[in-house]
Write a structure and sequence with these properties.
Blueprint (H helix, E strand, L loop, with lengths): L2 E6 L7 H14 L5 E5 L5 H10 L8 H7 L7 E2 L4 E4 L8 H8 L3 H5 L1 H6 L8 E5 L6 H9 L2 E7 L2 H21 L4 E8 L6 H14 L13 H9 L6 H29 L2
Parallel strand pairs: 1-5, 1-6, 2-4, 2-5, 6-7
Antiparallel strand pairs: 3-4
Helix pairs in contact: 1-2, 1-11
Pfam family, one: AAA_31
Protein name: Cobyrinic acid a,c-diamide synthase
InterPro entries: AAA_dom, DNA_Partitioning_ATPase, P-loop_NTPase
Length: 268
């Protein structure tokens, strides 16, 4: 059964979508895992980047159609043998209206994604969920559906506050809806590698979240990542390979952490 991970922070622009896409990409392409990327953001940036990177020129389905039909199976786009995605489109902004009009019980509203993911979990090793940086029905459903959260921490004060708020909201979801989700790690994203502010923010994060929870791997400010937004993900030269290696290091550390959590869970 798939390990399901939501990538989160309640501050926008910290790199959540890029990490969601690249973690899914490297696990599928480099590590041979069967991965499903679920785009829960109406902007659909994750869907666009995956499509651009794999030559998909037209997407004729969306996650909102799956919610309306009560099944996500028909919304899965098989971009490669190992990498599948459930894309989002702008119409998905109407998701809250759909929930309140069609799902009566509050617990069923926040658990709707989980209900629809459960029948397809056995088909994958990993499911990644990309969400908007808001406290909303989108993030509620992602938290309820996920086993773990990977918190993205851009090395600045507002991102640190967004991460702290995210942790508090996880506790709120656990207290009010019995959400069973654990923090897999806090992944630093550096604005200026080696910069004093960046390093200070990471040290404060270690004090706040625990040193073991802040990952040793970091996402450095790589220009190649910006280029991929335009060209799609490529592997043509040393700069591409350097960028890929950053994310390979991240997923290797993440898998190691998850294996420890899963093993500990067997004896609880």
């Amino acid at each position: 059964m798939a390990i399901t991970i939501v990538v989160g922070n309640f501050k926008g622009g910290v790199g959540k979508t890029k990490v969601s896409v690249m973690a899914s990409w490297e696990l599928a392409m480099a590590r041979g895992k069967k991965v499903l990327l679920v785009d829960m953001d109406p902007q659909g940036n994750a869907s666009t980047l995956i499509a651009r990177s794999t030559g998909v020129t037209e997407i004729n389905t969306s996650i909102f159609e799956g919610f309306q039909n009560g099944s996500l199976k028909e919304c899965i786009v098989e971009v490669t043998d190992n990498l599948h995605m459930i894309p989002a489109q702008v119409s998905f902004k109407n998701f809250p209206k759909f929930l309140y009009a069609n799902v009566k019980e509050e617990i069923d509203q926040v658990s709707y994604l989980k209900k629809l993911l459960d029948p397809i979990r056995d088909e994958y090793d990993y499911i990644f969920i990309d969400v908007p940086p808001t406290i909303s029905d989108f993030s509620d459903n992602a938290m309820m559906a996920a086993d773990y959260v990977l918190i993205i921490l851009q090395a600045q004060e507002l991102s640190l506050e967004g991460a702290e708020t995210y942790i508090k909201y996880l506790q709120f979801m656990a207290d009010n809806y019995d959400a069973d989700i654990q923090v897999a790690g806090v992944l630093p994203v550096l604005l200026r590698p080696g910069g004093r502010v960046d390093m200070s923010t990471i040290e404060r994060a270690k004090e706040m979240f625990g040193e073991d929870n802040v990952m040793e791997s970091v996402i450095k400010h790589l220009e190649r990542l910006k280029a991929w937004d335009v060209t799609g993900i490529t592997d043509n030269d040393m700069h591409d390979r350097k960028a890929h290696q950053v994310f390979l290091d991240v997923i290797d550390e993440l898998e190691e952490k998850l294996a420890q959590f899963e093993e500990a869970g067997k004896y609880e």
